[in-house]
């Protein structure tokens, strides 16, 4: 009587052990520890060469295609000058697992770190690179001081972490501190996922945008916390199919599409979703911004959904008359056409009377703007709205009263 039970049981055991052994041997993992290439975790000895050697090894080794290659950085502080991790590589996937902190050299060497097309750590022409963990510290404070002092001889500084011409990139749990310029830049890339990023720089640090995306498609930014001196996330020309969700932003300048229309010939921005964001004490909430001069650029199919504004100066803003220093644009109209922009479930407090401002191009009115379930107050009273050349509709409860034209 026991046989019918025992046999299936043994079969299951045999099957399980077969499964276990295939799963643990089929995917070989090769780990390159940067310390074995001479990297020093004391934060003082330059480890640039060791990181590049580990990368060269990982990038150029010929493995069977299923091999997982890991570049491992243990705990510690690693001083690194400007580096390009360049493809194309022989391997499908390279994962950086970084428990330590990467530290940029101090101001005296800034000329050197800005060399790299304005990047400190740059990945160029790579496919299938993941970064897990890592704290990167750009040590930008002394450069910010220089810029704030009005000294026009300051170096422009470098982006902490850049990706150019790359596909299938993942960043998971990356912390970016005190970048000299932008923190993370995604430029001419396809299929990028950023998850659990933390970005931190002083509220008065100039041009320290958190994450900047341009000329890229299918980028997703999730579950991130950004506190900086410029835009939390900025969305440049040529961005399509961008998804941003569950972000805390502030201090900073908010989430911005733009500045668009700087160039006469410019790619448009299309299909952007910005969902579930809390803005805390920021200059702007959700903004679209363009230069006030001719351009082929455009922004369309944009959804701003579920935003909480806490004491935000301009919670909802379209500004098409951007003209810094009043140079090369006064008296001209923005050529950037803005259409199909939806604001849904946007609520909270404005730090100024006008919480909704649509200041569109006199040449191309903003079209198909939708406000749905918006409630913004200023000093416990309904805030105000201001419109120029803005067309659209409302639904649900909308406060301040809409000034959109049909
Ligand atoms: C818009 O982008 C999302 C990803 O953010 C994508 O899933 C969706 O298919 C795109 N929609 C269109 C119409 O391309």
Automatic annotation (TrEMBL):
GO biological process, one term: carbohydrate metabolic process
Pfam families noted in UniProt: Glyco_hydro_28
Signal peptide annotation: 1-24
Molecular function per GO: polygalacturonase activity
Keyword annotations from UniProtKB, A to Z: Cell wall, Cell wall biogenesis/degradation, Glycosidase, Hydrolase, Secreted, Signal
Catalytic residues (UniProt): 253
Compartments where found: Secreted, Cell wall
Sequence similarity: Belongs to the glycosyl hydrolase 28 family.
Protein name (database record): Polygalacturonase-like
């Amino acid at each position: 009587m026991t046989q019918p039970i025992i046999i299936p049981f043994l079969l299951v055991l045999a099957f399980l052990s077969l499964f276990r052994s295939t799963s643990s041997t089929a995917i070989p993992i090769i780990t390159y520890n940067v310390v074995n290439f001479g990297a020093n975790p004391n934060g003082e000895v330059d480890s640039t060469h060791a990181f590049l050697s580990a990368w060269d090894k990982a990038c150029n080794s010929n493995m069977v295609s299923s091999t997982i290659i890991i570049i491992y950085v243990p705990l510690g502080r690693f001083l690194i000058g400007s580096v390009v991790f360049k493809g194309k590589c022989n391997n499908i996937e390279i994962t950086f697992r970084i428990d330590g902190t990467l530290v940029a050299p101090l101001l005296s060497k800034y000329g050197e770190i800005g060399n790299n097309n304005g990047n400190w750590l740059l990945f160029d022409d790579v496919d299938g690179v993941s970064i897990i963990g890592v704290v990167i510290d750009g040590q930008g404070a002394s450069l910010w001081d220089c810029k704030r002092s009005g000294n026009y001889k300051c170096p422009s500084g470098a982006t902490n972490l850049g990706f150019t011409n790359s596909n299938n990139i993942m960043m998971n749990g990356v912390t970016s501190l005190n970048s000299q310029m932008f923190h993370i830049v995604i430029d001419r890339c396809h299929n990028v996922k950023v998850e659990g990023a933390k970005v931190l720089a002083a509220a008065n640090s100039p041009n320290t945008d958190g994450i900047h995306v341009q000329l890229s498609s299918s980028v997703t930014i999730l579950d991130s916390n950004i506190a900086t001196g410029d835009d939390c996330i900025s969305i440049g020309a040529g961005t399509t199919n961008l998804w941003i969700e569950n972000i805390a932003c502030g201090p900073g300048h908010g989430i911005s599409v733009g500045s668009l229309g700087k160039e006469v010939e410019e790619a448009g921005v299309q299909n952007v979703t910005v969902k579930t964001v809390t803005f805390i004490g920021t200059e702007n909430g959700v903004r679209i911004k363009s230069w006030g001069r001719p351009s082929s650029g455009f922004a369309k199919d944009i959804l701003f959904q579920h935003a909480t504004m806490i004491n935000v100066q301009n919670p909802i803003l379209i500004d098409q008359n951007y003209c810094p220093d009043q140079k090369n644009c006064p008296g001209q109209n923005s050529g950037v056409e803005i259409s199909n922009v939806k604001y849904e479930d946007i609520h909270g407090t404005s730090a100024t009377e006008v919480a909704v401002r649509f200041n569109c191009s006199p040449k191309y009115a903003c079209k198909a703007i939708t406000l749905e379930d918006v409630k913004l107050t200023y000093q416990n009273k309904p805030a105000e709205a201001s419109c120029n050349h803005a067309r659209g509709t409302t639904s649900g409860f909308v406060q301040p009263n809409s000034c959109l034209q049909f």
